[in-house]
Each structure stands twice: as structure tokens, then as C-alpha cells.
Amino acid sequence: MKKKVFVFFPDGVGLRNFAFTDFKSIGENMGFDITYWNNTIFSLKDNLGFNEVKIEDHSTHPLLPIYSRARKRAELNVSRDKFSDGVYPTYKFPFNYKGLKNSLKSIYTKCLIGLYSSEKGIIKLRQKINNLERSTSKYKYCKAQLETHKPDLVFCTTQRSTQSISALLAAQDLGIPTVAFVYSWDNVPKAMQVVETNYYFVWSDLMKEEVLKYYPFVKEEQVFVTGTPQFEPHYDASLKESRVDFFNTYNLDVNKKYICYSGDDETTSPLDQYYLEDLANVVRHLNNKGENLGIIYRKCPVDFTPRYNAVIEANKDIIEVLDPIWKQVGSQWNQVLPTPEDFKMLYNVCEHSEFVTNVCSSTVFDFVAHNKPCIYYNYEQPQLKKGIRDIGQNYKYVHFRSMPSKEAAVFCTDKKDLESLVKQILDGKLSNVEICEDWYQIVAGKEPTQASKNIWNTIDSLLK
């Protein structure tokens, strides 16, 4: 008899990995009965023809945002003290004191943080959150769905969504095994593990070490290294278009060499548009010296600010805008959802660009999968002033300590050096690819093409 697995989407971030890759077909070929347990407003049945059970009740306890924020800050405080490391407070967002309601919420949150900033306190805080979520209508609703459909296992596609807590508690209370996939390379040190499940699937040995380091209540036998489906499309040769076809599709000049500028969200890089401007100035200067270069600007899919517009308009002879093919289906950042077509676009942007430049993005790994270098900007802009976040903070984060050496990316630490670095890469005299391949393996695991299969094999072994 086929084992029934609920693939649970608490929000849209997992769609890219688990709906638009070959993840489903691989599981079905291995004999699994797969149903998507869908908490998003994106219909998998209507858009992809997948078997789904929709969660229509999205209620959470009114106190959940306060308790969840307190948990995160308490965990960061414990990490700061336990590891004597000042990086952890830099993951915190400031409190909001605008208006009486926000002020009261912030004061209450700070009281909770004061009470629970210890390893035992965090466990109590998590228990309190679970008790709050068990009291919601969504908990009862999800429990009824599970009793009707009787899955053998629930696979949650991200560990970071508060929308998943009540649903996973309902499964656990019915004795259904639960798995959480740790979604992103930087999530564990940032105290973004919202849920507690029976098992955790992670990208790499490094990520497994981190889960056990930061969450002492998790046992080693609960954590499995599977890899991530995130990079699998880069190894799918069927996505590749010829240079001529790709350039024709997007009205690019086949005689030009293009550098990809991969945009960042406003929180990570609030002055990102000025790095694009710096690159445009360098390209213009090199073109005046006889090069024939252009820039492909691919924005961060969840950035809807107009901050790049002036730079793009002033350099429209150099910059070609290739927006990610994502659809906005709601007002929240996690309701901007990828489409299968975007895999093909990203594959070919990587394949047909000379290299990528950005501020600390994981696109370094997308491009190294195509043997393409990456420049990381790491200098201050003159527009930096009090209240604007310095991008240099990003490179001090824990996940950047996974670099085997600083040569895993080409760091531009002074604007005056940018032209020389660009020229050296174009001339084949400078590359980070070889060392970055080591870094990619450290972060994403040793089998980037096998992640979906590894996940299903691990689920199979757990169910046996």
C-alpha cells in the first residue's frame, strides 16, 4: 500500500523547491501518494493540477506575534552569552514605540524576554506558544483535516513560518510523524526555527552541526542531511537556451558581454541602487576604452521599491532589466510567488552572463553552478547616514563564517578597485570559482543534483 505524505506549504517560500522542481514526480516514481497541504492562496490544483487539501482557516492566537518575537530575541540573547559573540544582537529588529498599542506590545515583549532568556526559559516559552496555538480554531480545523485524510507523514517545507505551528501540533497530537525542512542557508543562527518537529532535514553537515549547536533539545538522530532542491534546476540541461535565442527573447545585444547585477531586498542592502550605479559607471568607462559590455539587472523578487528607477533610466543604454518571473498574489512578502518559467530565465541569465555582482546574496551559488565568478560589494556608500544600515554588517553574520577562505568570492572593498576587478574577471585573470565550489559544497551539501531523491529516500526510511 502506498504511503501517503502531506507536503505542507505554510507559506509560499517552499513552492520554488517543492512544487516547481521534479520533487513531486521523483516521489511519485518511488511509490508515494503525495498530497499538498496548502496554507497559501496559490492554488496548486488550479495552476499545476496537483492533488491538494486547502487550509482555509489561517487564524493564529492574538498573542502569537508577541511571544514569537520574544522567543527569537531570547534565543539570540542565549547565543550571545553562550558563545560570547556580539554578532547575535545584530540579527534583532528594533522595537516599535509608535503609538500606545505598539508601545504596550513592545513593553510586554521585553518583559517576556527578561523572564525567558535562558535555555530552560526558551523551552517554557516554546511550550507557551504551543499551548496558545492549540487553543485556536485553526488547530481544530487542521486536526479534522488530518483525521479525514490520514497521512502517514507531514513534510513541512519551511521551519520559519508561524502559520505552521498549529497544523504541525495537530499532526503530532494525532501521532503523525512530522518533518521540517530548514529552508535557507542563514536561518539557523538567526533563531528562525519556529517549529518543533519529530525530524529535521538540512542542506549539509554544516547545517546539521548548527541545528544541534543552537537547539540542544534536538537530538542527533532527529537531523538528516539531504541537500536542498533549490539548486537542482541549474543541472537541468533542458532549460538551456542558445545564446542567440535567449538574447532574442529578451532583446539583448548578441555582440555584448553582459554582467549580471543581482538586486537585494531593502533590509539587506538599503543603498543597493548606488552599487548598480557604480557598476554602470565602470561599464561605461570600460566601453569607452574599447569593451562592449552591458548589465543585466535582475531585481530581488520581493523588492517593489522605486529606488533603482533613476539609475536605470540614466543608464538605459547599458542596463537591461530582466525582472524575475514571479507573481504577486497577496500583499505580504511571502505572497510573492515564483513561477516555473523563472527557473528557465535564471538558468540562462547565469549561463549567458560573464559573472554576477551583488551584496552578499546566495546567487553566488547559482552562478558557481555555471562556473561563473561573483563580486561581492563591501564598501560604504557616501549616502550612508545614521539610521541606514551598513551593508558591511552582512558579511559578519555567522553564515559567512562558512567560507573556506575570503577568496570564495571576489570582494570589492573600495569603489576605486571595482573597474580593475571587473576587467581582471573579463580577461580571465581573476576568479573565485574554484574556492567557491568548495564553499558551495560546505553550505549546500555534496550532492546538489540529488536533494529531492535524498529527501524521499529519507522519508521512506523513516516510514519503515
Topology of this structure?
Elements: E1 4-9, H1 15-18, H2 23-29, E2 33-38, H3 44-48, E3 52-54, H4 64-83, H5 99-116, H6 119-134, H7 137-149, E4 153-156, H8 165-173, E5 178-181, E6 199-202, H9 205-214, E7 223-225, H10 243-249, E8 257-262, H11 272-288, E9 293-298, H12 309-314, E10 319-321, E11 326-328, E12 336-338, H13 340-352, E13 356-358, H14 363-368, E14 374-377, E15 410-412, H15 418-426, H16 433-444, H17 451-463
Parallel strand pairs: 1-2, 1-4, 2-3, 4-5, 5-6, 6-7, 8-9, 8-13, 9-10, 13-14, 14-15
Antiparallel strand pairs: 11-12
Helix pairs in contact: 4-5, 4-6, 7-8, 11-15
Organism: Algibacter marinivivus
Protein name: UDP-glycosyltransferase
InterPro entries: TagF_C (IPR043148)
Q: What's a quick, concise take on this entry?
A:
This is UDP-glycosyltransferase. The protein has 464 residues and is α/β, with parallel strands linked by helices.
Q: Could you characterize what this model shows?
A:
There is one protein chain. By secondary structure, the chain is an alpha/beta fold. The longest helix has 20 residues. It folds into three domains: 165 residues, 3-Layer(aba) Sandwich (Rossmann fold); 68 residues, no CATH class; 211 residues, Rossmann fold (3-Layer(aba) Sandwich). It is built from 17 helices and 15 strands. The strands form three sheets. The protein has a seven-stranded parallel β-sheet with strand order 3-2-1-4-5-6-7, with helices on both faces. A six-stranded parallel β-sheet has the order 10-9-8-13-14-15, with helices on both faces. It has a two-stranded antiparallel sheet with strand order 11-12.
